[in-house]
Amino acid sequence: MTSLPPQPLSPLDGRYRTAVTGLADYLSEAGLNRARVEVEVEWLIALTDRSLFETSPLTDDDKARLRALYLEFGQPEIDWLAEREAITRHDVKAVEYLVRDRLDTLGLTAIAELTHFAATSEDINSASYALTVKRAVVAVWLPKLRAVIASLRSAAIAHRDAAMLSRTHGQPATPSTMGKELAVFAWRLERVAAQIEGGEYLAKFSGATGTWSAHLAAEPSVDWPSLSREFIEGLGLDFNVLTTQIESHDWQVELYDRARHAGGILHNLATDIWTYISIGYFTQIPVAGATGSSTMPHKINPIRFENAEANLEIAGGLFATLASTLVTSRMQRDLTDSTTQRNIGVAFGHSLLALDNLERGLKEISLAEDVLLADLDANWEVLAEAIQTVVRAEIAAGRSSISDPYALLKDLTRGRRVGAAELAEFVQGLDIGDAAKERLLALTPATYAGLASRLVDELH
User: Fold this and answer.
1) Considering the domain 380-444, what is its CATH architecture?
2) pLDDT digits (tens, 9 = 90+) for 126-155
3) Pick the CATH number of 122-288+296-368 from 3.50.50.60, 1.20.200.10, 3.40.1190.20, 1.10.443.10
4) Which residues on adjacent β-strands are paired with residue 168?
5) What's the gap between Cα 15 and its chain centre?
6) Which residue numbers in the chain have pLDDT < 70?
């Protein structure tokens, strides 16, 4: 058997590439190396701006040419780094050599020795990972999550008055509205999204074991912790002053746990919408040219929600692994985080793919209000809660002598269907006040939804 031409091993880089391509700008190996070049260049500029070691601040033109190393980072740099890393067997060292090489080209050889000055690889990496993850989350992942929340909010408002039979434990229960049920998901996701938006992206820049030892040996008079903080915060990141050789990754643990939490809520949404489709509450809008089954032409399968469900499970497993692995590093440093962090993009990729499926799926369904109303009309027994509660209020007010209203309604309704006429006859015979009786007789399953419609207004 002949070998196939080179193929992507991961479906994220093959079948689903177009859905997740935005993440590759940040969370790919090339995206990481571009950020590493950025950190190296900006550290050079920070050191020369302070005229350390008898250097002079670079001109604006020189700074612009230096920054072009990462702003215009492309295939030539990717290829150069691949060739050099094959020799160095060290990714960050290859980046250092790239910057040094370009300094020679730019006529800035005089400051070459300040490249990677007093920095350990983890100084560069912690800042680079913080930059790439922050940018991927803010520019790509969060907007897609926000789009799903916006779709849910819009649907919640549109269906706020669409009464539906609730199903607790899968059994007929007190009615709600579809809008309120969708609003629950929007509310839950909004809360977690706000937590993610408020999260920190921490980096260190304190040397081999987090002590600034080499820095002080080179120049004892400089306040290196303050300079490092100013440098990291200047990159738009948060500074971690107390570390080992590595930044402790706790911010990543928090982020991945929250992303996993959001994924759990989204998974709940996917399975609920799937179920609503299966019982006919939602109909699926046919997509021209699409095929649901290779043998059953009538079928429209809820594949958007099934794909979302599966990808959320994969993403959740990866996020959990990232969080549990990155929280630990033996003593001052081990290398378990290196391979682990290279899978950040895979976790967010499957999560983004799920979000894309959910966003598209929500646009491909239509509420079947006639089915909702028919289901309600077939389950008048759900008014038993209202009746027994009203009877209890009447007893408390001294307008009824009924001894056990719950048992009374349980005998009438438990495990059996009760129609409108039978329920009305039952209410007419109750020992309660006329006003209470009129309220109960006016109720239908479709009008017994409490404040469901108004609760949608809690979405902001």
Assistant:
1) Orthogonal Bundle (1.10)
2) 999 999 999 999 999 999 999 999 999 999
3) 1.20.200.10
4) 171
5) 22
6) 287-300
Query: Which residues make Cβ contacts (< 8 Å) with residue 29, sequence separation at least 6?
Result: 342
Could you tell me the pTM of the whole model? 0.92
Cα-Cα-Cα-Cα dihedral sign, residues 216, 220, 223, 228: negative
CB hemisphere CA count around 229 (13 angstroms): 8
Instruction: Please state the domain extents for the chain.
Output: 20-119, 122-288+296-368, 380-444
Annotated active-site residue 51? The verdict is: no
Residue 45 CA to residue 238 CA, distance in Å, equals: 19
- Among candidate residues 56, 278, 293, 324, the one labeled active-site is 293
169 is known as an active-site residue: yes
Q: Which CATH class is domain 20-119?
A: mainly alpha
8-state DSSP, 242: S
- Mind spelling out the 3-state secondary structure of 304-345? HHHHHHHHHHHHHHHHHHHHHHHCCCCCCCCCHHHHHHCCHH
CB burial of residue 190 (10 Å; 0-12, 13-18, 19+): middle
Among residues 169, 366, 401, 460, the one annotated as catalytic is: 169
